[in-house]
Amino acid sequence: MTDAAHGTDDPRTRANLLAEALALWQGDAFAGLGDLDRITARVLAVLGSEKFAAEFASDADDADAGLP
Fold it and tell me: Is 67 left (phi over 0), alpha (psi -120 to 50) or beta?
């Protein structure tokens, strides 16, 4: 529903679709995930690794281009 809402130019249709999507939402968003602290730590670790990899790749590109 949210994809359809983003795909329409009609504001009334968009509002109706988003209202329907919100009506389907029940309860806590992460109720079935268990240990949120552990999950959060892992997500942050992965994001940190991704940032490190991007910076490393950028540094390698700079070196290839002869930049300091």
Answer: beta
Per-residue pLDDT band for 63 (boundaries 50, 70, 90) equals: low
N-term to C-term CA, the chain: 49
Who wins on pLDDT, 66 or 21?
21
DSSP string, the chain: -HHHHHT---HHHHHHHHHHHHHH--S-TTGGG--HHHHHHHHHHHHHHHHHHHHHHHHHHHHHTT--
This prediction's pTM: 0.40
Side-chain half-sphere exposure of 14, counting CA atoms within 13 A: 6
| 61's tokens | 């590109």
- Boundaries of every domain in the chain: 1-28, 34-68
